[in-house]
Write a structure and sequence with these properties.
171 residues; four-stranded antiparallel beta sheet; 35% helix; disordered N terminus
Length: 171
């Protein structure tokens, strides 16, 4: 029989952790049911099989942007403090955008940090990432090359590289 190696500590979680986990799973079950019923044409969101703490989303690139025509995959990892704390969101489809890290896919978005509220849902987070594709913020870049092009006013250069990345990775 395996025994927990906790040096005399109890293996039982404190009551506050159990309550947070229960709240998280209740909320995620509701969000999974809502996502399954969704008919939103530009967004698909679903939990990974047998793991409500790991989700995938696919979003269509917004029209009239360099991302139009692309489909972008997002990975959402939910910690035990959700919905009190935001999920960790990464874009797994390579793309050229100032607010998305070109190697890790990390997303720079205020609602994933200091502006988080439990009122946000996973679908609203994915919608916000899609909106970010249409409205990049060059003043807060994770991809400095993309941010520098936009700050220098080279919108055409930015769009050309972004469209190339879409055709290579997201079409």
């Amino acid at each position: 029989m395996l025994q927990p190696a906790l040096s005399g500590r109890s293996a039982v979680l404190p009551a506050s952790h159990a309550i947070e986990r229960g709240m998280m799973f209740k909320r995620l079950r509701k969000e999974a049911a809502d996502a399954q019923r969704s008919t939103e044409p530009d967004l698909v969101l679903a939990p990974q099989r047998d793991n409500l703490q790991s989700w995938r989303a696919w979003v269509a690139g917004p029209t009239d942007t360099p991302f139009e025509g692309g489909v972008f995959e997002l990975e959402l990892n939910i910690g035990v403090r959700y919905p009190l704390a935001p999920p960790v969101v990464r874009v797994t489809t390579p793309l050229f955008h100032p607010n998305i890290h070109d190697r890790t896919g990390e997303v720079c978005l205020d609602i994933l940090k200091e502006a988080w509220s439990p009122a946000w849902t996973l679908v609203s987070v994915v919608r916000a990432v899609r909106a970010l594709l249409a409205a990049p913020n060059a003043d807060s870049p994770l991809n400095c090359d993309a941010g520098n092009l936009l700050r220098a006013g080279d919108v055409d250069g930015f769009a050309r590289i972004a469209r190339r990345m879409v055709s290579e990775h997201a079409s």
